[in-house]
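go over both lines:
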Amino acid sequence: MNVYGATKAYVLSFTEGLAEELDPYGVRVMALCPGPTESEFQATAGVKPEAIRTRVAMTAEECAQIGLEDFDSGKRISITGWGNKLQVFGTWLAPRDLVTKAVSRVMQRRLPIDD
C-alpha cells in the first residue's frame, strides 16, 4: 500500500507539472482522484471484505461523468465525492506526521495479515 500511495502522489505531481508545461500548446491534462468507486480494486488489492468501506460508493459511470465535467471546466485535478474532498482538505490542514500515522492505522485494518 505504501507503493500505491507513493505512486498516486507521483502521478498527481507529474500531472500538475505536465499540465503547466503543455498549457501554452493548448493541451489540457487532468488527474482524476476518485473516491470510493464500485470496482474490483479492493479484491485485487487483497483488502479484507469486512474492512471495505460501508459508505455508498459511486458507480464508475458517476465517477467518469464528474471527471469529464471537471475536465471541461478546465480543472487540473478532479476529486470525486464530497467525502473524498473532505479527506483531502483535512490532510492539508493536519500535521504530516499525524496524517501518516492515521493512514497507517487505517491501512493495517484493511489488509490481510499473512500467517
About this structure: The chain has five helices and two strands.
